[in-house]
Amino acid sequence: MTFTPTAEQQQIFAHRQGLAKVFAGPGTGKTTTLVNYVEKLATDGFKQVLVLCFNKEVRKEIQQRITKMQVKGVAVHTFHSLAYHAIKPRNLPKNLEQVQRILQKKIYQQFLQAKPALDALDEFADFVAKQKAYYPMRVPPNEPLSHAFKLYEQQRKHEGLLFYDDWLQSYAYQLEQLGVPFYDAVLVDEAQDLNPIQFSIFEMLTTHARVGMLVGDVDQTLYQWRQAHPEMFLTCQIPHLPECKFTLSQTFRYGHQQALAAQQLIHQNVRRHPLLTVSNGAIQTAIKLEQYEAPVNRLVLQLEQLQKQQPGASIAIIAPTWVALEPVQMALLLKRLPYDIKADKRLNLHDGFKLIDALGILNAPNYNSIAAEQRVDAIHTIFTTPYHPVKMEFIQTLATQFGQLPRERVLHHIASLQQSVEKPVWRTLENLRIAITLIANNAVNAEQVLSEYYTQTDLIHHIQNDALLSEERRNDKCFHYQQLVILAEKKAQSFTEFASFIKGVFRLKAEAKPSNLVLGTVHFHKGLEYDHVFVMAGESWGQEPQKLEEEERRSLYVAITRAKQQTTILCDNNAKLAELMQLEHAQQAYSRLMGNTLLNNLSNTCQRYLEKLTRVLQS
Ligand SMILES: Nc1ncnc2c1ncn2[C@@H]1O[C@H](COP(=O)(O)OP(=O)(O)OP(=O)(O)O)[C@@H](O)[C@H]1O
Q1: Number of structural domains, the chain?
Q2: Centroid of ligand 1 to alpha carbon of 341 (angstroms)
Q3: What angle do CA 521, 522, 527 make, to 5 degrees?
Q4: Which of 185, 205, 305, 531 has minimal Cβ neighbours within 10 Å of its Cβ?
Q5: Structural domain harbouring 544
Q6: Is residue 431 helix, strand or coil?
């Protein structure tokens, strides 16, 4: 398809000196403009251009487009990949985040002189993350946590560990000490999500540059919890690069109805920099709200229909959290729809995988030669996993194993377990009690003790008592678990087969081939577009739009602006989102925005379009 730039896009293409800030709503061609701009720069003799983005998927997308255009001298990175290539951290543990967590816990406990303060550990983790989001770090001198932070840094350095947030710190330090490589243009996509250290890195990287460019949409900020400061994007200055502001106001992705609903939603945010996104009347995009008792089942039905009507269509299923996607993932796998499904996270099934692996370790003939850490992990998993259809079997195996283990070793496991338990949930304590009974009885009655205990508390019972889930979701989940177990039991002749069946069913083809059905949270889908989008509104987004927090509203806004043909918001009967679809409210919101100053910057094309839209709305 040939690309005919709009007047607004052409203005950006002509930019050759200074810091360009491009403010633009969803689907207005930010990424497209950036990629085409890079080509213009290359043709105009720019030799080293750096494009920075936030998300691996978006990076891949930009890289592919640039390669297709055969543009030379352009590097595309996420901030972390750029830092990684520069600092080359060695011997990275696979489970970096887990190691960081363990270190934080160790230090924090030491800091508190072993007081039982596990609940406050999250606060310490946040404190660490916050310090690392600034360069240079400005650790407050009198904060009680500052002392713990110093201990943490000493220990981290002593152990030679570099965690994700240290990569950026080390990279910024390296730039400062060794000098900045030459780039004549540095461009950042999704600049609203820059945090202070990323901004400092951007600033340093523009040292020799003629052009800096920040492209973003403040309404799509999703990383404030990671210290993103959209105000920085709005107000920042770089001394040697004079500022120029641009807007992209026409969305190419969706039509009026979608634009109005999106506007209606985001207009309720108070702390925003108002920006109007108008749609091209030629596109028809439907937005629907569907309320059902079992939204997941409804989704499966719709996907089945869609598969018949439009087999090649690209589809996204978006939910606010991975937990909310879990029943969807299960349902899709059970139904075995003829889609290639891609998800950025494998289905966890409440640690079912870990349990299966743990069992493998406990049953391994070379158990004694398996690293102690792994063995402790396996036992830890078995104790701390709250429920699972095959738990019974695991526990029986464990009992047998324990019966054969020297007493000291079991005691050692229990001691390690006590140390490594993340959160002392009642279930874990119960498991510990059982384990101790087991040891006390030298495992003689262990199987009996355990089987009595676990038959009373089966999987379904636990799901039904899961206070985090709504009733509908609980029913959905119970149903799908039951289906899965029935299916697995039918197929499997032995426990080993049962385990490998479950393992097989849930092993998603992560990156295997291009897939047209993609599941993920809103952070994953950010910056991407699909023909059809299904938004699983669930509890977090299912409220009245007015009651949502600003960040929640922004993430729902990102979710509902991904579709080119249709957005379907699926939620249970109690959801209150209906108002979102009442477009007369949206029209008022539009009218109020029309007087906004930013609109004075709109191109003539867009002004004309707005006038046309106003007439349509009034008629
Ligand atoms: N001048 C144009 N003419 C026609 N289509 C265009 C034009 N510019 C961009 N597009 C199309 O608009 C769609 C959205 O573009 P793009 O993904 O770059 O938007 P975006 O602003 O980065 O979106 P988001 O806010 O979701 O990150 C793409 O399908 C792209 O091909």
Answers
A1: 4
A2: 25
A3: 130
A4: 305
A5: 256-315+518-618
A6: helix
